Amino acid sequence: MAFLVVVTGLDRAAAKAIAQAIDQIQQTQESLERSPTRAVAATVTTPKRSPVAATSYEGWVARRRQEANAMALRRPARLAVLVGDSLTLAFPSRLLPAGTTWLNQGISGDTTRLLLQRLDGLARLQPEVIFVAIGINDLMQGVSDDTIVENHRAITQELRRAHPNSRIVLQSLFPHRGASSTWEGRARLRQATLDRIKRINRRLNQVARDERVGFLDLFPMFTDPQGNLHPDLTTDGLHLSDRGYLVWRAALDSFLQLSRSGAAGLTVTPRPAEENRAGAQRLTDSDNRSVATPSDRPSPTPKASPADRKPPSSSAAPANRPAELPDRARSTNRREAPATTDDQRP
After folding, report:
1. 20 versus 237: which is more confidently predicted?
2. At 163, is the secondary structure helix, strand, or coil?
């Protein structure tokens, strides 16, 4: 799997960082192809397995909280946190980018509402970056687009409040293969049409701009020519294969390298390529269709007229509890509950 990279408007440090990231990704891919069972893509440190039983959603929440607290005591210099559902949970540690300590806080069956309620479990951490990937379970449970988007906004606001020195990165929803999926819960994917996912992703991009955080649009990096999840990147039409996680790794690695190089105004944009549709990637500094924008840096704010001024947001919550959801989100999600078995939920 090759990566096509076009670099414009970069200083030498940024260009060098990008080149190193691409080299690492390609070396990992070659190693995986030679020996999938022995390839090691990253040197990562993770806390010991928690003794808390994770046989229920509550058990998983307790385990994740213990792991986060253990990591907080160690205070690693470059800590990246992944939060999300089973797509995040299943990310192989050997395929995560090197040079970073990774803490996986994914839980199978998680939704935007449930994730918002457990964000206080990260309170003691001081991460460099927090990557958020959540929402497919909301769609399959009948949650409205508006609620999904506003819950993402509330998650973003709570993370920014609790972690003012961390970069927050929203990630788009992934595509799937719909009726072609072999996943046993594929009937529920009818509610998560690809057009609907793309509409939500556009709105999430706007949320990221509004809240001055990063946005990583993974959707076009994972599609085949028909717009479905590429068959080479999935195990069952919904969950990802090792090759799928390599593509995700490329996006994460590029974002980290760019942000550390100081090229905070750049974007990472996937570029369609006939020779390798899923793996091609383009870096540019001026494309308005921004994909990964570490945009939480200070920037001048124009003065607004009295008519344009908006009342301050009330989404931020005290430190000891997660942000409250908008009324619309609370009413829509009131009946929502996690699925009962791990094999029936992403």
Report:
1. 237
2. coil
